[in-house]
Amino acid sequence: MENFTENASGNNSINCTINHGIHQTLSPVIYILVFVLGLPANCLSLYYGYLQIKAKNELGIYLCNLTVADLFYIFSLPFWLQYVLQQDNWPYNELLCKICGILLYENIYISVGFLCCISIDRYLAVVHPFRFHQFRTMKAAAVVSVVIWSKEFLTSWFVFKHGEVSKDAESHAVCFEHYPIKSWEHNLNFYRFFAGFFFPFFLLVFSYCGILQVVHKSHGTQKKKKIQIKRLVSSTVAIFLACFGPYHILLVIRSVFENNCTFAEKIFNIYHISLLLTTFNCVADPVLYCFSSENTHQDFVKMRDSCSACLKCLRTETKESYQLNIPENFRKSSGAHAEQEPGLLNNVHAVKKMKESSITSTD
């Protein structure tokens, strides 16, 4: 294992003795569950985003970027799994710790950014369908995507300047955890809360409130379609709050009140539970923004029909090949037996009639 970089204070030891038991019990279960469910779901989501890009739909660019961000984090889960299973002892070098930590934390804000892009795109399409065409093009979506990734890379560069692997009281190499939090983390946490959560949440609520008002006033929209849109909007906001809300609230609480080990020990478990909730975003994104759309259901129906058609073709070919493989002698003999069967049946019926007539004559 390589030597770890000294932190800003020149001391790479952690004074607080924290019980990391939650990492050995709950975290492995969540990491494995998210990896097993999230990997195939996001692969399918990436495929459907690609289909929308081929159809010149700018929404596909946001979906693909959102899915790529989720996949990056999912690919880092095996490293975090090994980390927590080894009693929170990072087995690799500090560079890999920084990369995995950035994928873990910045995935939250990349996902939030593209969720906002999707909500604003839908807002403009529903509320202002004949205006702002220049913001709903493939080129505009590509530019916005570059801006979001660049913003997060700049934030990651600030994190890269600090050492992220330190030693705890048990001489374990702890990755991306400081107790109590460092002085440079306070401003970063407030920036994450306001720019990475609160403002995007305001945009999300504003966009979907406008969509719901237009759908409610629309008389041409079917009642079933209105219910579907309302459920999708409400579930989006609910999942956004459930995945990202607790973590950012506790992030602010730590930045304000965590200045000693006693508070850090009290908040450790609930803070890490909120951090685990953010990982479910990788599973929720494909379900909400890909699998809930009407076009996706039609694509699934097409896939099902094509698969069933292929199965029928395979069965037909199997039967035909089986019939062709029947020996010629066997088919001739079976045909001869079939021709002889009517005569044999007639002889049996004649014998029965003779017995019946003889019985009646004796009576």
Q: Could you describe the 3D structure shown?
A:
It contains ten helices and two strands, in the order H-H-H-H-E-E-H-H-H-H-H-H. The protein is mainly α. It folds into two domains: 21-292, Rhopdopsin 7-helix transmembrane proteins, CATH 1.20.1070; 308-362. It has a two-stranded antiparallel sheet with strand order 1-2. Strand 1 (165-167) and strand 2 (173-175) form a beta hairpin. The model is unreliable at 1-13, 330-345 and 357-363 (pLDDT under 50).
Number of self-contained structural domains: 2
CATH topology of the largest domain: Rhopdopsin 7-helix transmembrane proteins
* Top-tier CATH class of the largest domain: Mainly Alpha
From the N-terminal CA to the C-terminal CA, the straight-line distance is 110 Å
Which oligomeric form is depicted? single chain
State the helical fraction. Answer: over 70%
CATH architecture assignment of the largest domain:
Up-down Bundle
On the 0 to 100 scale, the average pLDDT is 78
| Number of DSSP strand runs | 2
Fourth-level CATH superfamily of the largest domain = Rhodopsin 7-helix transmembrane proteins
Spatial order of the strands in the main sheet? 1-2
Radius of gyration from the alpha-carbon trace, in angstroms: 33 Å
**Unreliable stretches, pLDDT < 50, 5 or more residues?**
1-13, 330-345, 357-363
Give the helix/strand class. mainly alpha
Question: What share of residues are in beta strands?
Answer: under 5%
> Helical stretch count?
10
Described by strand count, sense and barrel closure, the largest sheet is: 2 strands, antiparallel
The helix/strand order is: HHHHEEHHHHHH
